[in-house]
Design brief:
Layout lengths: L1 E7 L3 E6 L4 E6 L2 E4 L4 E4 L3 H18 L6 E6 L2 E5 L2 E2 L2 E8 L3 H5 L7 E11 L8 E2 L1 H7 L4 H24 L2 E8 L1 E4 L2 E4 L8 E5 L9 H4 L5 H12 L6
The structure holds thymidine-5'-phosphate (TMP) and aspartic acid.
The site of thymidine-5'-phosphate has 9 residues, from strand 12 and strand 15.
């Protein structure tokens, strides 16, 4: 049973339920970029992202990776475990794109031999500054053991997702993960969707993700729908 709203982020709103161990995440149609400086709405965006996330969470669970996903309660709402969110954005990069090409002398589309993991502090106020383990521990956002666990889980998720996306005709240059603490364990939280991944069509190289909105690259909904058709074809039957 959905009760009052406890938190509203840029793309999802979180509600309490009658069970303190469970929350409901509502995937909204709102879109933001550049720390919320650019804003818009896109009908059905919440639906596609919720359905894509659901499918990916289910597949990761089958791979033995714990996620906060429990079940869908509507087309755009998922029941999730209440976790203590770790205030770190975990970015995994396979192909150079986005901020890494602006901050470092790396050409866009460079394929990295080894995936790169970057930890950023989740803080709009400070512009999500990059962390290393020592800073994360000094700030009290995570322990050394948690940082190591997160790195291992992020790499496992990456291995699975790169292979899966390849099968559906998509390259995965990079994506962002968030984790939470539950019963002494670290579990995957947040979402994995077109808002949080870079996805490039294997044939055309076209962006099929939020970069379309960030950089005005075309029809966002058409691209999100196409990704949904490849990942969750059953919702179109
Ligand atoms: P970046 O190249 O802008 O640093 O983004 C790296 C990846 O992280 C990209 O797949 C988009 C995703 N991302 C988020 O999900 N949320 C964010 O706030 C940012 C900045 C990036
Ligand atoms: N989600 C972030 C924001 O709204 C940034 C991004 O995804 O580009 O500001």
């Amino acid at each position: 049973m959905k009760e009052e709203q406890i938190y509203s982020g840029k793309a999802k709103t979180i509600y309490r339920t009658d069970d303190p161990k469970k929350l409901i995440a509502h995937f909204r149609n709102s879109l933001t970029a550049f720390d919320g400086k650019k804003k818009s709405e896109a009908p059905k965006k919440g639906y596609y992202n919720a359905q894509i996330s659901k499918k990916i969470f289910e597949m990761l669970e089958s791979e033995g990776i714990r996620t906060h996903f429990i079940e869908m309660v509507s087309d755009t709402e998922m029941l999730i475990d209440a976790v203590e969110i770790i205030k770190i954005e975990v970015i995994v990069r396979n192909i150079a794109a986005g901020s890494i090409t602006r901050k470092y002398p790396i050409e866009e589309k460079t394929h990295f031999k080894n995936p790169i993991i970057v930890f950023d502090l989740k803080s709009d106020e400070y512009g999500d500054p990059m962390l290393n383990d020592d800073i994360a521990v000094a700030l009290g956002v995570a322990t050394y053991e948690e940082m190591e666990k997160i790195r291992i889980i992020a790499l496992r998720i990456n291995r699975f997702l790169v292979e899966y996306m390849d099968k559906v005709g998509l390259l995965l240059p990079d994506f962002k993960l968030e984790f939470g603490r539950k019963d002494g364990d670290i579990i995957l939280a947040d979402e994995i969707s077109c808002d949080t991944c870079r996805l490039w069509d294997k044939k055309t190289g076209q962006s099929m993700d939020k970069d379309i909105f960030r950089f005005d690259k075309g029809d966002l909904l058409k691209a999100y729908e196409e990704v949904a058709r490849r990942i969750v074809p059953d919702i179109f039957e």
